[in-house]
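Appendix B. Raw example, untouched.
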Amino acid sequence: MTVLTAELTSAEVSQTALAAFDQVVSGTPGFRARPGQRDMALRIATHLHGVTLGEHDAPLSAVAVIQAGTGVGKSAAYLSTMVAMALERKTRVVVSTATVALQEQLMTKDLPALAAVLDTPFVFALAKGRGRYVCKLKLERLAGSDGEPLDMFEGDDAPEPTAPAKPVPPVKGVTWIDPMERRMQLYDTLASGLAAGRWDGDRDSLAEQPEASDWATVAAERHTCTARHCPRFGSCSYYQARMQLAQAQVIVANHDLVLASLGMKALPDLDNCLLVFDEGHHLPAVALDQFSSAMDLSGLRWLDKLPKILLDVADKMGVQLTQDVATLAQQLKTALLQASSLAMDFLRGVASSYDVVHRFKEGVVPEAMLEPFRLIHGHAQALSDALEALGKELKLRTKEDPSQATQSAVQYARLGQIAPKLNAVVATSAMWLASPEPPLAKWLKSDTSSGLVQLSAHACPIVPGDLLRQHVWRQVRGAVVTSASLTTCGNFDYFLAEAGLAGLPQVSTLAVDSPFDYRQQGELIVTDTRADARDVAAYTAEVVTALVADLHTVPHGALVLFTSRAQMQSAVQALDAVLQERVLVQGQMARGKLLGIHQARVEAGDASVIFGLQSFGEGLDLPGALCETVFITKLPFSPPSDPVEEARAEWLKRSGRDPFTELVVPATGIKLLQWTGRAIRSETDQARVICYDKRLLNMAYGRRMLQGLPPYAVSRRPFS
């Protein structure tokens, strides 16, 4: 990679990037230039033009954090400049999103539009996780097997050899199909489609999505894959997709995949490409999820199969295992059962229900419970070492003797079936035994939703910024982080801290205002309910009464956002016959179908109202009459029961800090910005937001949140 260091060359890169944006503006029919959009493009072009890529003694890095309000057109601003810069630098761009909807927009609309006007051609591709593709070797061994035992599928995800009893009573009009027969029909269909070229092996391209459990059995996965040593490597769907990615100058991915692929070579190295995190406000939560760990303390059947698999694979290879894996597996199971028994006794002492989440304060687990975890970690690590050694030997033998590739790949896949469970035990037990500062969140979870008591142990870091700084920003050379909601309470401070960017010299921030005239196009009405929001029953009763009255005045489309399912159900039960015909409730049907019915009703001139929970407060694009009113039933504070947030608040208090002011208020402010953003989606929209939570005006923290919202005309309405 050529590193650009000369002032002139860097300036030329900047000019090229900005010229590309101007070319998009002038060359795209119907494109409306917006001042804020050019400000964004200018910041990207000037801030990132001098970054150094690849190996360098003193690399220059730059991260542009840009909030772009609704309607700015941020994707056109960052795509035109970043792609032009990458083409000039002969490097690549990775655009990471949080939602499938934005990925589809980039792949089907924004990138084709950019390719149509740029002088230099470029290739773009969508990156997906390995599990979205079929493993051809697994599928071939299952298809046409007529239910014969398959020794490579000996994990808990294997097809059950016997079918469950028929449902009683039978469902009228529905033909019952043996689950095993259904699976085998599916695998035969997939295999024939793949062989005939009618299907490319990508789950998302199937006309009908298979059951998750059926797909899991044939999905490609890292632990069961011998990569180029596999006899089907040349026709592997996943690696064919990887080859297409290698030819692309622009790769669209998601935050989970980017973080999960660190060090895996599935995507370009972060120090050798340009990077965009769109919907960047999700990054901290994704980081916590990626670096958390959990292990099952109740489902231990896999441990009975583990030694048999290891010994059988070793026998087929003619290898003598150095460890007594049968004894180790029995010792591990005994330790897990001991931990499970201690955990259940402990939970019975602190809770009256089997459905409980118990977090250990300050990450301190009782010593009596830690003792089996020390044994668990030691035994699991020894078994993991044995499994890894066998896997390396299989790959080595395949390399030395290609004629053994098929048999070696099958044996490797058998090891891979148990590797994830074993790795989870190793990782979780290690985290439970660790005592870092800040402390880890550690908790037990007991759940009976399956009809049986399922017990699990969990651990998670509590400061996402530390994770992102260590694993991402130390490597990144040139990046844009953007979203419509990066500021809260009027500044970037909260996001920068959460994302690990606070105090870094390479970081630049810019807030680009929406082109919408919020004061003229909309209004924010705060209803003065009498009940205190902390009195859940009284407050909900008042809100539901006011909401039902307001819904009768809705002429076209509206969205009601609730903070809990119980609150939403109370409103559903209060609907009269007229409103029951107008209201669509999240969860009644698939999201796409619900939105389609809503649109059809409004376009037909009827009133239609969507009831939704927090996930409907972001990403819904309902312009014009589809959403003329957004009703916010309560300020969207996160539930206080999240163990990671609880642990972090506890740590902050111990450090003499105020978690409510430092974390809760700004996090709620970001959600509120997203929720109010559902109202006005274009320059011609006229909409209002009605909030029933008077704390937005009456409390100091509410007024802080209000500072971060678009400049609606704000008014107060008495409760009647």
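End of appendix B.
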